[in-house]
Design brief:
It contains 13 helices and twelve strands. The protein has two domains: 4-222, Spore Coat Polysaccharide Biosynthesis Protein SpsA, Chain A; 224-323, no CATH class. It is α/β, with parallel strands linked by helices.
């Protein structure tokens, strides 16, 4: 059995593809296969792949119509023969000993996942910066752990991407974890479900992948147009975790991560579209869960979710948002004049509830 299958979705990256492929074929770990999924490229990417295929028998090409990186990775998984799986993007590149170090660690620990860090690469200056997304202070003080050891912070302990992880293929296939077919954020489901379901996780406090930050072809350049994808993603994650009876166990880390993901995606949305995105986001969490969500961030639990969003982001000037009074007229919780009832406003509709019922909900 091949030690590692490297799966690379490829779409219109002729400018960077050679550097990516060179970094993989020249790895110090030689027992690998390199599965390149050409996702309907219209430039010379396929021709470059065929050129490398002739030179290196470890390279396998899947040529398919354009369906997005998530579908492309699923195609790669279907034919992968490696004991372990590593995913990378075709505009990034690896340090030459990356796979050997990751393989040694995960095989010694017999783990489902091995975590590491990554470097941000700035082509204009040639500078590399360690992103430092592996948060050691959140990790347990032992070599092998699982989400059950750190249920409240498992999704915050490492980068929310797949190229900072080496996966055991048997773990992926046994749990039938796949990538979603969405235009952006297609790895969020995979990353979340694998972290929450893995029985054994290890880590190396090193950065191996060089993530290219400045190229215009990066998905972030058009991300604002597809920001609703993160809503679709988290709806499925929460639905599936509830089916597996895991949602309550990891509720706190899930709330934090949904919020962090949404804040990130929201930054790319034009001001006139932001309110629509906010309305869509409330589909993820039922109204009662807004109250618990608020507690995590240390905000008075009677505030609605949109007020929470305002408090955290507008005051920190991280994000532009509509006038607070405008939001309060649509989403708010307040006392009536006699202070015997709470008046909850949702999308302009007012609901009157006895204060005792609200207090009970807040416990």
């Amino acid at each position: 059995m091949t030690k590692i299958s490297v799966i690379i979705p490829v779409y219109n990256v002729e400018k960077y593809l050679r550097e990516c492929l060179d970094s993989v074929v020249n790895q110090t770990l030689k027992d690998i296969e390199i599965i390149c999924v050409n996702d309907g490229s219209t430039d010379n990417s396929l021709e470059i792949l065929k050129e490398y295929e002739k030179q290196d028998s470890r390279i396998k090409i899947i040529d398919k119509k354009n369906e997005g990186a998530g579908v492309a990775r699923n195609h790669g998984l279907q034919i992968a023969s490696g004991k372990y799986i590593y995913f990378m993007d075709s505009d990034d590149f690896l340090d030459n000993n990356a796979l050997e170090i990751l393989y040694t660690k995960i095989s010694e620990e017999n783990a489902d996942i091995c975590l590491c860090d990554y470097k941000e690469y700035y082509e204009s200056s040639g500078e590399k910066r360690n992103a430092k997304f592996l948060r050691l202070h959140l990790l347990p003080n032992f070599n092998i752990f699982s989400a059950k050891d750190i249920p409240d912070t498992i999704l915050q302990c490492c980068a929310t991407n797949i190229y900072t992880k080496l996966y055991c293929k048997n773990f992926i296939t046994t749990n039938n974890i796949q990538f979603q077919n969405v235009k952006t954020c297609n790895d969020v489901y995979f990353n979340t479900m694998t972290l929450l379901m893995a029985k054994s996780i290890c880590y190396i406090n090193k950065a191996f992948l060089n993530y290219r930050c400045e190229q215009s072809s990066n998905l972030t350049s058009s991300r604002g147009k597809t920001a609703q994808c993160i809503i679709i993603v988290w709806q499925k994650i929460i639905k599936d975790l509830k089916k597996k009876k895991l949602f309550k166990i990891y509720k706190k880390t899930i709330y934090k991560q949904t919020f962090n993901n949404f804040v990130y995606e929201f930054k790319f949305v034009e001001p006139e579209e932001q309110y629509k995105q906010l309305l869509g986001y409330q589909k993820i969490l039922p109204t009662k869960e807004f109250l618990e969500f608020a507690k995590i961030f240390g905000i008075k639990p009677q505030k609605s979710f949109l007020n929470i969003f305002y408090t955290i982001n507008y005051k920190n000037k991280q994000i532009r948002i509509f006038n607070k009074n405008f939001i309060n007229n649509l989403f708010s919780v307040r006392n009536d004049d006699r202070r015997t009832h709470k008046i909850i406003t949702l999308l302009g509709a007012k609901i009157k509830i006895k204060r005792g019922a609200v207090k009970q909900c807040q416990k």
